[in-house]
Write a structure and sequence with these properties.
The chain is α/β, with parallel strands linked by helices and about 325 residues long.
Length: about 325
């Protein structure tokens, strides 16, 4: 029997990217997966992207689970309430909630100072990527609390607390980590575990299209960005969710943030192509090499700046963060 054959999951934001990979791998493990999002075959919600929740549900079923597509706008409370009423009627339980709603790619203003940002875009990002997670967790948890067990996974970007390079992007992604932490505190006396999880350099459908490659020849994308060689498929973080869902000691991880690559080391899973991508080690080695000789251009200065932000708030490595700031001339 598949390890999650008796489990019922919701992947909120399952249309594409990490959400689709997570739903797919939960299906591979035998779970019933409610695949939610706004893009359907009748009505697309993301300009330029063809993926639909029906396709994701079909992937789940073909992999060995039961995929159910439900069109939901997770910023609309009535639709979120309706989702969990339908799950209660269909399955009577909920074991896994993955909050992966995003929608901020076209709203992020990289390189724009906060005081020049478009506040309308920022507000829409917070509504899409933070408020939607809060609404979804609020209406999912009563069903989970009734069973006194389950796993809530907040998908974020980065397993660190430092800045992510753009104000509203940082606020949205850091909020996922804080939501997991706060939920873990609220759920302390229950059998439910809440935590946050990040993929590495994600080889999503949009990223493949951006580099003009497919999953079959993805390595050619390294000609556009050499760091793409350490990318991972969306299924890699999906296998991380499956490993967490099977771990009888997952409660010891409550309230913290984890990365696909560190969990792969601990649990021993690989990506679906058999690789073991490790974005954390790759990025650490890359920035260490740049720091050893000094940055040569703005791209390398940017990479050191991002590494310094990763080191922020960790008292054990504050000195290293300060050293990198010295190399890029930051105070």
């Amino acid at each position: 029997m598949k390890p999650l054959a008796s489990k019922v999951a919701v992947v909120a934001g399952a249309t594409r990217g990490a959400g689709r990979g997570i739903a797919h791998m939960l299906g591979e493990a035998g779970a019933t997966v409610f695949c939610t999002g706004r893009s359907t075959r009748e009505s697309g919600a993301t300009p330029g992207r063809p993926e639909t929740i029906e396709e994701t549900a079909e992937l789940v079923t073909r992999a060995g689970g039961r995929g159910i597509a439900v069109r939901v706008d997770h910023t609309a409370e009535a639709e979120v309430v309706g989702l969990f009423e339908a799950i209660r009627a269909d399955a009577g339980r909920l074991d896994i909630l993955v909050n992966d709603v995003w929608g901020g790619d076209d709203l992020t203003e990289w390189g724009t100072p906060f005081w020049e940002t478009d506040l309308g875009k920022g507000r829409r990002m917070i509504e899409a990527a933070v408020w939607s997670h809060i609404l979804t967790a609020r209406h999912a948890l009563p069903l989970m609390v009734e069973g006194n067990s389950g796993l809530v996974v907040e998908i974020t970007d980065g397993d660190f607390l430092g800045y992510r390079g753009a104000f509203f992007y940082d606020l949205a992604k850091a909020s996922g980590i804080r939501i997991a932490y706060a939920l873990a505190a609220e759920l302390l006396d229950t059998g439910i575990t809440a935590l946050a999880l990040t993929p590495g350099f994600l080889r999503s459908e949009a990223m493949l299209a951006r580099f003009g490659v497919t999953e079959e020849n993805w390595r050619e994308g390294a000609r556009v960005d050499p760091h793409f060689i350490e990318s991972e498929t969306p299924c890699f973080v999906g296998r991380a969710v499956v490993a967490l869902a099977q771990d009888p000691q997952v409660r010891t991880r409550a309230g913290r943030v984890f990365a696909s690559w560190t969990l792969a080391r601990e649990y021993g899973f690989t990506d679906i192509d058999g690789r073991s991508p490790d974005w954390g080690r790759y990025f650490e080695a890359l920035t260490a090499e740049i720091a050893s000789r000094g940055p040569r251009n703005e791209d390398e200065r940017f990479l050191l700046r991002m590494r310094a932000f990763q080191l922020d708030f960790d008292p054990a490595i504050t000195a290293e963060a300060q050293r990198l700031r010295g190399l890029i001339g930051a105070k």
